[in-house]
Design the sequence.
């Protein structure tokens, strides 16, 4: 039943903007009102200067140009996937899968994209299908950065070749950025690679084709998200800043479609 002020989630007119902002963790209602009066808040691309405006979960709200989460039923989790775990919620071969990392969450989470079993690093777990589509589909150009330990000494010519493009069985591929970070030993090199391709085992196949097979591989960044100091096998919710950056990418992708 709606309350006396008509602010129930079932109210077809929506919730007051400052209440929604406070629920999203932007600031207290009072500070949210100040942000609105300062012209720093927009709804569906239009600046709002009155705090009484009502919004629905389908509206797009931004503060200083950064999107905020309106639908609080959505969960966004970062995982540092360990080596040996497959990127699946139910592996048909009985191998360790991602279910072991989602049991403490009430929501039914799924992974955004995949890492092969021998690659560790950043995976996003969520129940937001729209966000997952935008981040995972290569047509949206979301960049992913990997650190690879590879066999041999990687030369400047090899870095240039990776940037220019390498021909693989399923077509040519080029990285968006690449650099050698230094030698891991006399016969191994650490390399940083950034690309937006979602093709299967693409980093391993590129480095193999370039004559430098991968020994260890970790994904450190996915779009605006950075693994930071999160330990292997640990999860954490995205921060408000991280979530704002991700939701802004989704908003911009929607505006371009």
Sequence:
């Amino acid at each position: 039943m709606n309350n006396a002020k008509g602010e129930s989630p079932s109210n077809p007119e929506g919730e007051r903007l400052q209440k929604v902002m406070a629920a999203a963790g932007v600031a207290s209602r009072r500070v949210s009102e100040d942000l609105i009066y300062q012209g720093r808040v927009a709804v569906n691309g239009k600046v709002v200067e009155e705090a009484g405006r009502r919004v629905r979960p389908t509206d797009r709200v931004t503060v200083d140009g950064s999107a905020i989460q309106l639908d609080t039923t959505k969960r966004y989790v970062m995982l540092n996937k360990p080596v040996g775990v497959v990127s699946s919620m139910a592996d048909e071969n009985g191998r360790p899968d991602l279910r072991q990392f989602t049991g403490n969450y009430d929501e039914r989470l799924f992974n955004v994209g995949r890492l092969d079993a021998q690659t560790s690093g950043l995976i996003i777990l969520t129940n937001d299908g729209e966000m997952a589509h935008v981040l995972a589909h290569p047509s949206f150009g979301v960049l992913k950065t990997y650190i690879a330990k590879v066999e041999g000494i990687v030369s400047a010519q090899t870095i240039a070749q990776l940037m220019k493009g390498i021909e693989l069985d399923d077509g040519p591929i080029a990285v968006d950025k690449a650099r050698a970070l230094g030698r891991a030993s006399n016969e191994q090199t650490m390399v940083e690679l950034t690309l937006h391709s979602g093709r299967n085992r693409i980093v391993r196949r590129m480095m193999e084709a370039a004559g430098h097979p991968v020994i260890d591989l970790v994904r450190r960044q996915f779009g605006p998200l950075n693994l930071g100091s999160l330990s292997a096998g640990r999860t954490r919710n995205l921060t408000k800043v991280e979530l704002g950056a991700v939701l802004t990418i989704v908003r911009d992708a929607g505006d371009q479609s």
Observations:
- The first strand starts at residue 15 and ends at 16.
- Helices lie at 17-23, 29-37, 129-136, 156-164, 202-209, 240-256.
- The two ends are 38 Å apart (CA to CA).
